[in-house]
Amino acid sequence: MNFKKLITALACVVLSAGVFAADKLAVAEPVGKGGVPASDIEAFWGILESSIQSDEYTLVSRGALKQMLTEIGLTTSSDLVSLNSTQKAKLGEVEGVKYILVSEISKFGTRLNCTMRILDATTGEIDQARTANLRVKDLDELADQIEATLQKLLSDDKSLHRSAILSPVIKVSAPSYLADDFNVRLENEMLDKGLRLQNLQSVTKILKKNDMDNLNELEPKMYVKVGKLLEVEMLLQATITRFEIEKIAYNVAETGASGFRYIGNLEGSVRIISAQTGETLGSVPFDERVDFRTIPISTRRDWTVDDYGKHLIRTVIPQKVIPGIMKSPAFKDKNPPKAEAEEKKAETKKAGAPGKPDPAIELEGVIE
Asked: I need a surface site. Which of 17, 19, 55, 293 has the fewest CB within 10 A?
């Protein structure tokens, strides 16, 4: 991806960021350091400005921005990140701009650094939660990362408090689908509860690119590094210590029927880790035994052992893992009202009779 495509990607993300809807946005001249050519900086600025054209946004012109900066005693856009109290007060009084996108590109050895910040012009404050720092080998690598980074940078403040699900640590012999099925189900259930997550595919891609795709019980400082790469507030990682589908033979003396029934066992825990400190904020244990006779024979007649295993995951995560996560101190104050209402509704349903094995088990015959 060339430099022009990088700028186009940046502009498209700005256009898609609903936080700026009906607000005026100014793009400050990018600051170049460490030998970045002035022509690249000018191209960066010009292409970005020309791309931000939409009925949903009003782009403040260069001239208007320059006049505004002059009024508060600034001569370069680099001064925007270090306003004094007087300048902040003057900036807040100037009408015509709500947000300013401030960026800096610099060279450090053979690497390229890119820093982007969102300045709230009404207060003169840089929103630290909307600061992105990327260190890449060249502009092409920066282009690969810029879209996901800016989606976070320009999103609504509430969506910044995201978590990421890491690959589970599996300590037993298990089928190949276990890790992916467990994480996909966990992601879907958390999203259904209204929790904000970094996309699993993005997590995998980012970690793999940084040679960190094998994360087995890291030291706290490594979890902090992972958190910075993924730009999330918390990390979740499961440890699975038992995953077993038991095939149990049975015989019914009265009828002479015989066959097999299946019992599923899933045991482990999900750690909730602070991406700021690397410390464990909580752990949600699960140790469940599922009798599959509660499922109608017509549904599972042609099931394989893998089908039983996948059903075990689909059963345990929403019934045991998710409630534990939602009640943990780390997530309790982040539960959306909808999720809290659903949880109360689910607890009410539990007052009813639990599921019973299908009485037709005695008529199943042999299951292979």
From this structure: 55
